[in-house]
Amino acid sequence: MSETALLSRADPQFLADVLEGLRGPRRAIPARWFYDERGSTLFDEITRLPEYYPTRNETALLKNCKDALAEQIASGGAVIEFGAGSATKTPLLLEAIDPEFYVPVDISGDYLRNSATVLQSRFPDLNIIPVEADFTQTMVLPDNIAYTNILGFFPGSTIGNFVPRSGVDLLRHMRATLGEGAKLLIGFDRIKSADVLVPAYDDAAGVTAAFNLNLLHRINRELGGDIPVDAFLHQIVWNDLEARVEMHLRCNRDIRFSVAGVDFSFDEGDSIHTENSHKYDLRSLRLLLRSGCWTPVAEYSDPEDWFTLVLAEAAPIQTAP
Ligand code: AVI
């Protein structure tokens, strides 16, 4: 395919983010672009790695707080999940609170429909209404859901992939989407030793490295790039000041390449910042929720305090004092 034909099919936002992000001096590409088909498959593999504790710990936590959740959340309402849903975590929540409607919201329509089909066979009486949308923006909920009893579900500590300013914006959009009287069940990965955090993002089997490097393959494939992928190394940094694990792609030699006809040159040691994964203590996660117009009402943590699920209520939108 010619480069013009290729670029006419490319996502214009992906192209803009990559050209802007490679320009430097502080090169960075938003983490949302990891998730093409290959990236989503690799992320799925990551969640099963021995070093990657968040999925295991959050799943165990959900199992353990099922009864407590059932006491706090009335059955027969609607669950709005931000993201297409996980094959293990979503059924646990649905079993616990028995809603009438389940509305998964995701930007990737194919992935959304596939996971909805799998879930429907397991919960034949549940009304599943997939919504293809960007959940980082306020959206209108399907009008056939019961607006009285709404629970947002945002597991996985995906909130950690947003810098605090964007995380607050995201929570406020969720508050606007879900409305007055809604609740939110949200997962937060906790601050812990770098000896645990770093291997979780730099596993021995190299799956996270492949996930990180796949971004460059995607750029080459979708944006007509000729980046020599073998010149880049997966690098993980625990940034204690910002309380976050950072992923970078570090260049191991001087190179030149082009993307969409634009030339770039990298020196040995230059890097592209590809992801932040913020970690929280209880005070910082409460502050983030309150800033995003949510009032925490219950917290569930595992015995090691490695992961916390918070149930929060929509707060009145107020600016003073
Ligand atoms: C999706 N997100 C919560 C994952 C995380 O832990 O920040 C993405 C991930 N990146 C590398 N490993 C996992």
UniProtKB/TrEMBL annotation:
Record's keyword annotation contains Cytoplasm: no
An MF annotation (GO) of this entry: L-histidine N(alpha)-methyltransferase activity
Protein name: L-histidine N(Alpha)-methyltransferase
EC assignment: 2.1.1.44
EC top class named in words: transferase
InterPro entries in alphabetical order: EgtD, EgtD_Methyltrsf_superfamily, MeTrfase_dom, MeTrfase_EgtD-like, SAM-dependent_MTases_sf
Keyword Transferase: yes
UniProt entry keywords in alphabetical sequence: Methyltransferase, Transferase
Source organism, top-level taxon: Bacteria
Annotated ranges, domain Histidine-specific methyltransferase SAM-dependent: 16-313
Gene Ontology terms: biological process: methylation
Record Pfam families: Methyltransf_33
Gene3D superfamilies the record matches: Vaccinia Virus protein VP39
